[in-house]
Specification:
Elements (H helix, E strand, L loop, with lengths): L3 H19 L8 E4 L11 E4 L3 H8 L9 E4 L7 H5 L5 H7 L2 H12 L16 H9 L16 H18 L4 H4 L10 H7 L3 H4 L5 H4 L6 H27 L6
Parallel strand pairs: 1-3
Antiparallel strand pairs: 2-3
Helix pairs in contact: 1-4, 1-7, 5-7, 9-12
Length: 250
Amino acid sequence: MLTQKQIAWRLRKRLERLVKAAIPELAGPVYFVFSHEGVDLGWAGGCVCRDGDAIAREVYGKKWRGRGPTVFLKWDFHWEMQWIRGLPGDFIGWLAAGYHAIIAHEVAHLIADTPVFQPASDDALPSVEVVLETLRGPAAFEAFDQICNGHGVDYWRAFAHVAARICAVTGESGAKWMLNSEAYGLSGGDAYFAALGDELRELGASKIADILKLPPPASLFQLWRSDTAAIVKARRAKRLMAASGGEPCQ
């Protein structure tokens, strides 16, 4: 019977192979570290950190392959281990499928070059303590409340392309449902896929980083701008209400 550590390693390797197959333009290693391996992600399902390989190096040990960004993923299987081990067939694949949307979200940050945690330098590997303190700090997830901080139109465009390519590899059909745009107060993923028009099909063989150098489809930009304007307006109304101590106008 596989131990939790063995399951984590098999799952990690499965996810690494998926990213390499779906997004070959990512040069160098992309590491995966689970929350039960020493990182408290709080409420977040995942995050990406260019300096996270300080932690990945400890987790990977001799399997560490040099500098590379790290995707941290929440591990919610502590109490279900016995049940998971009893699943028939490829239960590692079943576990991996639950992470596909989160991985698409985080890999899109890498391609759009908008990870929440930027490196102090390109060469210096920070200490594990420094990275952990960054992840624990209150500023770590402030980006969630700033709709344009790492989640602009280029980001959602990249996310759609990453999701579509992951689904092309896995055979899944729900790429548009991977986009968690509604969690950020935006229109749903289906709306963002529709706004991309034929771009996903016509540019499916191009590097996503090269696609982002092209102007976004007008319909995509207009949708994102309208969504963002609505969010800004709603937040302004809340601030005015709080300042006045009254109720917002209906």
